[in-house]
Amino acid sequence: MDPTASTDRRDAAVATVTDFFAALDALDVPRAGTFLTPDVVWRNTTLPTLRGLPTVTRALRAAARPRCRFEAVVHHIASDGDAVLVERTDTLTLGPLRSTFWVCGTFEIRDGKIAVWRDYFSWRNVLLGAVTGTLRSVRGRQRHLPAAPGHGRSTGTIPGAAPATVPPDYPRKDQVK
């Protein structure tokens, strides 16, 4: 067996998956669909299995609506022939809510296209990401409140709320080395 041919096949499989995620990040579902076989199967942990290009692209289009966003940061990607393993962090944004969570995906490539896509993730991580994203969203809104009367800039607090108190023994910035 020619080792160069094996390496080329692995590189092509990785490129297919990498280009697929680039299209998803760009919210370009038609381009993402070009990397999928007509009989593609998409399996997500505990979610219904989606079968066929029209069904999968319909689901992807749902995430590409206004005020929605999908981002994937690939941490590790490896292949063995036509199988590609991807460890990544996905971020789903819906309006002001943003959830970031860890995902591991397995892709089976057939004739240069993705035939099977399996994603494994923890619902606990998705929930934790949603809670964290919600808290960040709320904190971000507090930082951009209108200026208090008589002040030239935002106070960063909720109007009418009691001021924060700091324990007397808590070190100030100038006391921390």
TrEMBL record:
<dbReference type="InterPro" id="IPR032710">
    <property type="entry name" value="NTF2-like_dom_sf"/>
</dbReference>
<feature type="region of interest" description="Disordered">
    <location>
        <begin position="144"/>
        <end position="177"/>
    </location>
</feature>
<dbReference type="GO" id="GO:0016787">
    <property type="term" value="F:hydrolase activity"/>
</dbReference>
<protein>
    <submittedName>
        <fullName>Limonene-1,2-epoxide hydrolase</fullName>
    </submittedName>
</protein>
<keyword id="KW-0378">Hydrolase</keyword>
<feature type="domain" description="Limonene-1,2-epoxide hydrolase">
    <location>
        <begin position="13"/>
        <end position="127"/>
    </location>
</feature>
<dbReference type="Pfam" id="PF07858">
    <property type="entry name" value="LEH"/>
</dbReference>
<dbReference type="InterPro" id="IPR013100">
    <property type="entry name" value="LEH"/>
</dbReference>
